[in-house]
Amino acid sequence: MFPKLDPILHSELRLAVVSLLAGVESADFTYIKKQTGATAGNLSVQIEKLSTAGYITVEKGFKGKMPCTTCRITDAGLEAFRQYVAALKEYIS
Amino acid sequence: MFPKLDPILHSELRLAVVSLLAGVESADFTYIKKQTGATAGNLSVQIEKLSTAGYITVEKGFKGKMPCTTCRITDAGLEAFRQYVAALKEYIS
DNA sequence: TAATTTGGTTTATAATATAAACTTATTTAT
DNA sequence: ATAAATAAGTTTATATTATAAACCAAATTA
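^ inputs. structure came back:
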């Protein structure tokens, strides 16, 4: 009746990050930070978790001389997000 | 952009309980336990939290000689649920 | 060259979720 | 009548999480 909710996605900040990444080709750390209003520390930890789960890829490079971390959602991440949304609908409808 | 999600409701089991109660006049502990598949301990704790938050009322009585705990959603609980669902939609749409 | 800002990471702490253990009373079996 | 099993929970302990605070290195500005 109430399907299990993926604990990786059932987190306010991680859900926001994945939701954001689902709509764009890629986004860098600073942009995600601004859009979500998260602190850098929290965001760093949650991005690491999403990456470990295989839901996003993280690429460290430079924009000019400044370090720049670029995130992208993976196919697995998109699929997990899709399933999470479907499961959630059982709860809220 | 990403509204804050009510932490009382952003919990798998509490959300299931409130979702269930939103659709019925009342439900007792045992019934909720069966429908959600939760352990009694976990359910007891989460029901207490929902009650403390004013989202549900808890009435202890007897059904025959057996103790029976009956739960009901409050107006505040319904409103919080409604708002939570609205906020969530910003994340998943 | 000193102070500040940028772009993060690591570490510590507080809150949460969850299950395991326990309690009290009832019902069923012997 | 008494022992064992079940019902209906609660309390307590533990493991996981979320979050912020502290930190670091490099670049920019004063």
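The longest strand of chain B covers residues 56-63. The helical segments of chain B are 12-22, 29-36, 40-52, 75-92.
thumbs up if we can close this ticket
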